[in-house]
Predict the structure.
Amino acid sequence: MDPSSPADPGTVPVLLEQYPAFLAYLTRRVGDRALAEDLLQDAFARVVARPDQAPETGAVVPWFYRTLRNAAIDRFRRQGTANRALETFARELESAETVTPDTHNEVCQCISRLARALKPEYADAIQSIDVDGVPVKRYAEQKGLSAGAAGVRVFRARQALRKRLAQSCGVCAEHGCLDCTCGQSQRGTDSGEV
């Protein structure tokens, strides 16, 4: 069908007549009636939004079956990608080291001390979000900020803290070792910000 020509007015009624058959077809393919209904509704919405893409009324039913089959395949591909990502994340969580409470407290004290040398709003963001564990959304509400503005603030605060940590702890901060001597070295903590 020529995209510039108007859509065949009989297309949607022909497809609506086949609705139960389309739904049964999709339900068999995806194994879930609710998901089949969602896919079918999306396909109908695309036909209504872009009727110029549908073929002539005589060929519309086979074309729509192909459209539904492709929608089901796309759904399974997206679901497969999401499942693989979740499996990878689960493996990472299983293999992650657990931090002892002593190490956690030591790191928190070091971070808190270094954060105090940052701009006050950065120090407050680091202390609240990263040390005290306040969710960004709640922090934003407490400070009268939008969630986006709070996210930007904590991002910039972390960048400034990273610079301060590298200045104070040197190489160990870049490589993540636990033999940090920042408690002994206070160079540069007198300046008000990074």
User: Anything to note?
Assistant: The first helix runs from residue 11 to 17. DSSP finds nine helices and no strands in the chain. Confidence is low (pLDDT under 50) at residues 1-6, 182-194.
